Amino acid sequence: MIAVTCTAPVNIAVIKYWGKRDEKLILPINSSLSGTLNQNDMKTTTTVVASPDFDRDRIWLNGREEDIQSERIQRVLDEIRKRAGDRKEASKEKLSTYKVHIVTVNNFPTAAGLASSASGYCCLVYTLAQVFQVSGDISTIARVGSGSACRSIYGGWVAWDMGNEIDGSDSRARQVADEHHWKEMRVLVLVVNDKKKETSSTAGMQNSVETSKLIQERVKIVPGRMAQMEKSIADRDYETFGQLTMRDSDDFHAVCADTQPPIFYMNETSKRVVDIVKRYNRTCGKTSAAYTFDAGPNPVIYLLEEHVSPLLSILTHFFPSDEKNYVRNVPDVENVLKRELPKGFEDIEKRVDGLKSGPDLRPCLRHRSFCVMRRESLEWNEKYELQRM
Ligand code: DP6
User: Fold this and answer.
1) Which ligand 1 atom sits closest to the C-alpha of 200?
2) What is the pLDDT confidence band of residue 45, given thresholds at 50, 70 and 90?
3) How far apart are the CA of 164 and the centre of ligand 1, in A?
4) CATH number of the domain within which 341 lies
5) Which of 22, 51, 160, 297 fits 270 for a cystine, CB–CB 3.0-4.6 Å?
6) Which domain range does residue 39 map to?
7) Atom 11 (ligand 1): residue with closest C-alpha?
8) What percent of the chain has pLDDT over 90?
């Protein structure tokens, strides 16, 4: 019997993957790029036990047994078994006959648009690869589980090159910069809603490919944007990085709105956060915070360390809550929880781009109970551990 436990992180794209050219192999219509978050607050933990005595494969997700026959899990298991024993030729035959029992847990809401499939499939593939002694690049195996999962295989900044090959062999993850590059970068994950999302990414992007005209325009724009994004990361050029991040998120959600039936992942709270970030940048006189939204309403903000405290103070001012652990992993949490507008930002309500007056920013009671903010990646992925425990 072999038993291995591993953990894996989530990643949040700054150039989004949206749309497949091959549904089975999960080949995308555009390349994408993400930052891998550290695992302090959000991670998947998976244990795989393999034994010649098990009569069938089984899987439990967050304590409940799930259908192991799911197409994606089967494809992952097939790929792993094909490559079993790469490291030790002798064990190949024996290993690939072992059945597995898989137990996997997320310490954050599953399927709420918080990249759970990314860490989930990354962790599953990585753990299976340890058990079955698979060597070499495993991002193509993670990809057939869930597209975005292939980017969690590496730390730091990771591109998923769309590739051209029909068998998907060149559609894989590539590390653009490691976790030590751009030390000052931080990520705020604002949980405004942790319910399961209404339209899954898989179904949503399929509809977009079938019905949106705008998605064809986006596909033409992404290659240039990828190149600019990679350069901005290499140069640690926040201004360009931030502008590209927000632009790509906006474009992705415009494609969703252009889909039939239209998909709206962002809610009123999401839009208020966008407004606050815009006003914050305007007040700073330069791009200092950049929002991005996946297939859900939760804003993720990439920003440099020096902006964490002032921006969080503004957010807690406009979205107050008495909930325990409302703000996590912030060194000066006391200060942030005072909910005071920081110096220089007192008139932020008046800072509206191109408009005489903007939406009212005063706290809206409706949002109080479910606006939980969490701070991730205090040590921007300092200890990247796709780790065997
Ligand atoms: C909006 O990877 O969840 O988060 O490949 O069908 O499993 P499947 O989709 P998934 O899509 C993620 C889409 C996104 C953007 C991104 O992470 O790049």
Assistant:
1) 3
2) very high
3) 19
4) 3.30.70.890
5) 297
6) 2-178
7) 201
8) 61
Cβ < 6 A, ligand 1 pocket: 13, 16-18, 26, 32, 117, 146-148, 201-202, 294-295
**Tens-place pLDDT, residues 223-252:** 999 999 999 999 999 999 999 999 999 999
**Domain end call among 149, 178, 207:** 178
In the reported structure, the alpha carbon of residue 17 is separated from the centroid of ligand 1 by a whole-number distance in angstroms of 6
Average pLDDT rounded to a whole number, residues 25-37: 96
User: 231: which 2 tokens?
Assistant: 């350069």
For residue 364, pLDDT over 60 is answered with: no
Are 117 and 199 within one domain?
Answer: no
Q: Are residues 315 and 221 in the same domain?
A: yes
Atom index in ligand 1 nearest the CA of residue 146 equals 7
Asked whether residue 274 falls in the same domain as residue 341, the answer is: yes
Atom of ligand 1 nearest to the CA of 34: 18
